[in-house]
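$ ./design --mode recover --in tokens.txt
reading tokens...
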């Protein structure tokens, strides 16, 4: 089974709890900065985002800027990276000191590192995101994406595409480790080949949105649960390549060997095939109006 990079960060709060008083004070020593880059051309950019742990947010912007980034980070252990060289843009947080004292202690109250990024709608982008652990809230709607790769480890990640992509993606890839992962309005991504490598956790994928062409979604899942939300007017086919994965919600689908088809497969304007290779887990298909 193919697996994406799995970055697992365990016991973060437990580690923070055993720090000395001095270390605990250092962990709380955060700095907030805001930086931006004026939009000077509309040439395609390769955008790389590196963020190890904390809260990650990405959305689009319409203000004559290439990007605007607000960062909160532990200044004694990390430094911001904002590098634009030609048609390559690298944004992130780089570790400058090692040790348990430098670990990011993201929690539900908002402590720890934060990475809040707005990207222009006007520039075609090949977007690569490496996110370790924490919470991610991404809205890629309206961006002009020519490529997309999202890698995460131990996280709660919600990615939606609230408006159609302005460009076409030949292949989009999501590599997810131990996570709660939601992918919404996938039809707006305008991708014909989507690959999802999922380790363990809970995964929810919604196939709503405006599909511009037929598409293939390949899902390689380890241990966990997968819920697929399928619009009733979308031609849908599920290929199940595992005997140890239970399947629910297929009463309205036609079974043919290891394939399940929607009743409108031959008549639908757009057809989407989900090719599932799972180890152990459960799969639920829900039709949506």
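writing sequence...
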């Amino acid at each position: 089974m193919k697996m994406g990079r799995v970055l697992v960060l365990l016991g973060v709060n437990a580690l923070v709890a055993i720090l000395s008083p001095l270390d605990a004070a250092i962990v709380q020593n955060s700095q907030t900065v805001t930086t931006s880059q004026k939009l000077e051309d509309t040439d395609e950019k390769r955008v790389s985002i590196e963020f190890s742990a904390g809260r990650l947010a990405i959305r689009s912007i319409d203000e004559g800027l290439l990007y605007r980034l607000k960062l909160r980070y532990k200044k004694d252990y990390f430094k911001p990276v904002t590098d634009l060289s030609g048609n390559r843009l690298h944004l992130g947080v780089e570790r400058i000191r090692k040790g348990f004292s430098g670990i990011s202690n993201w929690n539900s109250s908002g402590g720890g590192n934060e990475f809040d990024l707005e990207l222009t709608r006007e520039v075609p982008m090949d977007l690569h995101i490496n996110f370790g652990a924490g919470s991610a809230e991404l809205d890629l709607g309206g961006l002009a994406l020519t490529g997309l790769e999202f890698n995460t480890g131990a996280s709660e990640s919600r990615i939606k595409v609230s408006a159609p992509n302005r460009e076409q993606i030949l292949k989009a890839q999501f590599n997810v480790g131990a996570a709660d992962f939601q992918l919404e309005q996938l039809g707006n991504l305008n991708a014909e080949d989507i690959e999802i490598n999922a380790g363990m956790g809970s995964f929810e994928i919604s196939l709503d949105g405006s599909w511009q062409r037929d598409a293939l979604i390949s899902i390689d899942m380890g241990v966990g649960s997968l819920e697929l939300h399928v619009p009733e007017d979308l031609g849908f086919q599920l290929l199940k390549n595992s005997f140890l994965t239970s399947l629910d919600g297929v009463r309205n689908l036609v079974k043919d060997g290891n394939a399940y088809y929607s009743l409108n497969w031959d008549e639908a304007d757009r057809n989407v095939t989900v090719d599932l290779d799972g180890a152990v887990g459960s799969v639920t298909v829900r039709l949506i109006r």
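exit 0
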